[in-house]
Amino acid sequence: MVKTELSSQLLTHELQLGEQLNHCVHSDRRADFALMLAMLADDAREYSQFHLPKKAQDAREQPDYRALFQLPAEQPLALESLDQIEQYYHADAVAEQRFADIKLKQALAPEPLAFRDDKTHIPHQVKTNTSLFCRQKLQQQDKYKALTQDAGFNAKKWLDSINTAIVKQDIISPAQGVFV
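The structure corresponding to this sequence follows.
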């Protein structure tokens, strides 16, 4: 849904221009040709050749390399709980200049890369330094998330309260009932 709305607003690939690029080349209109190419999205992931059907990969095809090479667990991106903050406490080791201990601890049990629990958070400075296409794409995704989030509205309780209010007002007898 988001992709179709976004692609109708911006030029993402050369197929949206139709034959205009071809006409510019044959009629020697270099400025128009350059302008049209500059108007295309600069994100290569949006080009049509990268929107191919995806195959479902079978998990049996790939061996578990972590178990095969006896590697530690993957390094998490963010903290899962506030109790993990203790992992970052290296003041004693640094004061005693035990840097090898810190490296060994990091190799055996990697610490999360960031404190933030929201893995989808993008800082404002990063958003403002992106292209127009990327900003609109992020804005559309934010709108879609806002629409799909549960607003905490319980329709059944609301209908039951209306039914109770109508019955108490003696508009309809309780045997008839209003909402089922």
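The chain is about 45% helix and 0% strand.
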